[in-house]
Design brief:
Shape: globular
Structural class: mainly alpha
Largest sheet: 2 strands, antiparallel
Number of helices: 4
């Protein structure tokens, strides 16, 4: 089991953001905001890409939604199983990729990033994801 020590506000964000992303994924899975969530497997071969999406696309989407739902459902938990914490890791990654796309965050961004609430949230999610990685790897 893994102990979760977050304040009420953080837990509220972890309940709401995954639900927002899940709703957006279901309503518009091919939207521009999701390009980082589902990069093409066969970018130079449209026929192979279509076949790949036909074969595994729904499974990939279902796995994303399941991880997001686990994060939302367990956001208030004081302890998590390894399976739940792994779902948190995947869900946090999906939310960060989505938010990063919306904010147009790139690896080339300099240190003068805006300090508006969405960017602060993005960095807080990055910090939390790093903590989850440390916990799962036994370094926390």
């Amino acid at each position: 089991m893994y102990r979760v020590d977050l304040d009420t506000e953080d837990r509220a964000v972890l309940r709401e953001l995954p639900l927002q992303l899940s709703r957006a994924l279901v309503s518009n899975p091919k939207g521009e905001a999701f390009r980082r969530l589902s990069p093409p497997a066969y970018a130079s071969d449209p026929a192979a890409e279509d076949e790949y999406r036909r074969l595994v696309g729904q499974d990939l989407s279902d796995a994303k939604v399941a991880a997001l739902e686990t994060l939302a459902k367990t956001a208030d938990a004081k302890e998590l199983t390894e399976e739940e914490l792994d779902a948190w890791l995947r869900a946090l990654n999906f939310v960060r990729l989505w938010l990063g796309t919306v904010l147009d965050v790139s690896e080339d961004d300099d240190a003068d990033e805006p300090e508006d609430p969405p960017h602060i949230l993005y960095h807080a999610l990055t910090w939390l994801q790093a903590l989850v990685i440390d916990a799962l790897s036994g370094e926390a």
